[in-house]
């Protein structure tokens, strides 16, 4: 614990780092709020869960499709202009959502506005992660990425709670309005930081994309598989809880995964690792697969809760490895776009895994979902091991 405290204390004493973390947190919290807020707004307007789901899906699709393009713009022009432009469009989109819900009877205009709101979410997360190589050495960068991952886990819990509370007290319209204001304000604060304003265009040539790099494609495939496995695990835990007579307790079991993930992430980010990150990544994916398999031994709620904590132990360390390798595998000048593609892969893989898990649990058994999730992780580990040469540092070509 002393080493952990010293490591994070040193990180937070590094110039500009506390400001980047704080501003990034302010800008990223509403990203975990807007989807649920728009769903609640649509349901309040139409009374239809299917219409509300369609509106939420439209926002998610917009974010997934246009996120990489915004990341590419940040690489080519520096982060300030793309972030401010996206924030302006995003604020207008949220205003249109509120107007459509208040004055129009059809859900289609609200869905179109939700798509625009998702498509214009400022890529603060990608820009923040792209700043770390400029501000930190390799050792402190992993500590920063650990805090980044922990922030993400915390927001996934806090964001929906904030939206639910605002909706209960003041209505869904107020929740969506606050979300839009937070997103705009957070982006303005982030772009005002000296670290952000001093970041210059990376000079990547037009047509250069991380999707043309074999190492990045390999990494993206493992990220997608890992996200899909987590989606399957989530549904499998709910399936276990339902088979035990209380489906609602599945949420507590999934929270246990987050507890294990947060604890291991804090520990992992504080260590001074000597093994290469690509080798650690393979080991972590393998450990993640093995930990998931332990869920098969779940018999009662208490036992399964402990096994769920165990399952999460490799999650955040593997995510830190992903973040570290993105900076390495994305071609020069495309790192921000690379992080944006990782976000798209995470959302897409998680959605696919959730759908697959629902089918497996419904038609077979929750243990079938556990086996499939472990298999996805094992395949990711095998792929990373088989072509680990693609994940190693690139050797400069002779002039």
Mean pLDDT: 85
Query: How is the biggest beta sheet arranged?
Result: none
CA radius of gyration:
21 Å
Approximately how much beta-strand content do the residues carry?
under 5%
Task: Quote the distance from N terminus to C terminus.
Answer: 48 Å
| H-E order | HHHHHHHHHHHHHHHHH
Structural class: mainly alpha
Q: Which bin fits the share of residues in helices?
A: over 70%
How many distinct beta strands? Answer: 0
Principal-axes geometry comes out as globular
Q: Tally the helices.
A: 17
| Poorly predicted ranges | none
How would you characterize the overall build of this protein?
The chain is mostly helical and 399 residues long. It has 17 helices and no strands. α11 runs antiparallel to α12 (250-270) and α11 packs antiparallel against α15. The radius of gyration is 21 Å and the shape is globular. The mean pLDDT is 85.
Could you outline the blueprint of secondary structure elements for this entry?
Blueprint: H1 2-12, H2 17-28, H3 34-46, H4 49-77, H5 80-103, H6 108-119, H7 124-135, H8 138-170, H9 172-191, H10 194-197, H11 214-243, H12 250-270, H13 277-293, H14 301-311, H15 315-329, H16 335-363, H17 366-386
Helix pairs in contact: 1-12, 2-7, 2-9, 3-4, 3-5, 3-8, 3-9, 4-5, 4-6, 4-16, 5-6, 5-9, 7-8, 7-16, 8-9, 8-12, 8-15, 11-12, 11-15, 11-16, 11-17, 12-14, 12-15, 13-14, 13-15, 13-17, 15-16, 16-17
